[in-house]
Amino acid sequence: MDKARKDGFELLLLGCAAFLVIGIAWSVLTSHPTVDFRPGYWSARTFLEGADPYNPAVVERTYHADGGDRTARDSTHDLVPIVHGHYPPSELTFAVLFATLPFNAAQILWTACIAVMVLVAVLLMWTEGARHAPFAAGVLLSIFLVNSPSLMVFGNPGAIAVSLCAIGAWCMLRGRFVALGVVCLAASLTIKTHDVGLVWLYFVLAGGKLRKQALMALAVAVAISIPAFVWINHVSPHWFSEFMADIQASRMRGGLNDPGPGTSGARGIEMIVALPVIFSLFRDEAGFYNLASILTCAPLLVAWGVAAVRSKGEETKAWLSIAAISALSMLPIYHRQYDAKLIMLAVPALCILLAEGGRMARYAMWITATAVVLNGDFTWLLLLALLAKIPSTAIQTDVAVSVVPLSLLALGSFYVWAGMRRVREPARQESAVPAG
Description:
Elements: H1 3-29, H2 38-48, H3 56-65, H4 76-83, H5 89-99, H6 103-129, H7 134-146, H8 150-154, H9 157-174, H10 178-191, H11 193-206, H12 208-235, H13 239-251, H14 276-279, H15 286-311, H16 315-328, H17 347-356, H18 359-374, H19 377-387, H20 393-424
Helix pairs in contact: 1-6, 1-7, 2-3, 2-5, 3-4, 5-12, 6-7, 6-9, 6-17, 7-17, 9-10, 9-11, 10-11, 10-12, 11-12, 11-15, 11-16, 15-16, 15-20, 16-17, 16-20, 17-18, 18-20
């Protein structure tokens, strides 16, 4: 092992240790850990009892009948997010595996699963990046881990979805453990389709064996989800209207998922990172900021799609396309900071460009590192503390909601540009990739 690879790997191990130690300590010290796991858990418990998991009153009865989770205060403020499930039946397919256990045991197992999945995904991203720039990969992924313990603390299913997506992408692009990769990608689609759907689309557009594997993943995801949809329709024929009403209620002005200035949950750690939070500063109307976000992203997504088709699964082009979409996926519609951890997929593309050197390498390093650092837990807490010292509330808000979405927009735009440049270049020697 050469010195750069050895140093990079040692840094990565330090990052892994810090992620576990800080995450466990934070989980123990906080009075309300795994807040994002609770809605899925109690909805799944209701589902297992053959009742309607999308009816808050029914879920609350299940919650009280089971004695609650012993750590939540039974106030309206605490119960509202617990009894209002925002996940489709496909996500319940996985939640029921944990809902068979008492809450405390399920909570521990869920947190352990997140820790393992995140660490495996990051390790695979390092092995890919280390083929080109091992020290840089170790530094950036170590920073990523040290700045991401909230994934364990809050326990959002997005942490598992993005990790499974990264594992699946690595397996399929490297042509190793392909069956496992297909299953991981299928599971990530089942848990949070809107997080990883565009990464899956890359494999479809790339063609060849990658397209076949992507379609297999879709088939597996559908097969996993069908039983849950059938059972939900049986116990609650009106579940979809209840589900949509719940989603709409959370996104109403002042709601938990409202991206506008009056939101009760779009600021601070785990903030919303989609572009609507920026456009809402100009006009706080859903029709305006949603349309503006889509129109901003549409040209980039079209250019990305063209580059993806022309990449034909070749290694460098594939990683550039995946780096671009890992950031762009977050911008048009609702996503939060834990979803944006998908940008770990940009590290292999960065390392490829670093190994080639030149101006593109410098751009890649600054843009990728900025996005990774700004989307981190402690960076964000420090930034909020600094912003609190600014007298102008308007400036505080504008900066707070803008920095992360703009960094993701810069990251996605840069790798779209890099991907388009690459597909226009004369054919160059590429490593073998199972693209058919």
